[in-house]
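User: Here's a chain of 124 residues. Predict its fold as tokens.
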Amino acid sequence: MNSPPSADADQSRSEALARIDEVERALERLAAAVRAQAAELQGELAEARLSVIALHSHAVAAALVEPPSADDAPQGSAEGARLVALDLIGRGMSADESKDRLREAFPGIDADRVLRDVGATSGH
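Assistant: Prediction complete.
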């Protein structure tokens, strides 16, 4: 015997509501997991930013203490001389002191020309 139409409709409605509740609970679990993962990632991001800031601060402090020397690039290296010259110019070191450091670090390099070239290229 078949159930009356109203009983079938009630059964279908109950099943649909149960499925809606099930999907809603699953969605809430998923949302909670996403929020937890997002919070964890935000924490990792904050730690990474602090590490970068600390590394940068350390590098800046070290750079202020000791300008580049001959150990920073191969002897006689024109490219190394340009890199050191760029760093010296960026630090605001005087032209005379920069030339002396370049001559000491890179014997045989035309320190005047290197500083002129780097200064023109870097806009200094």
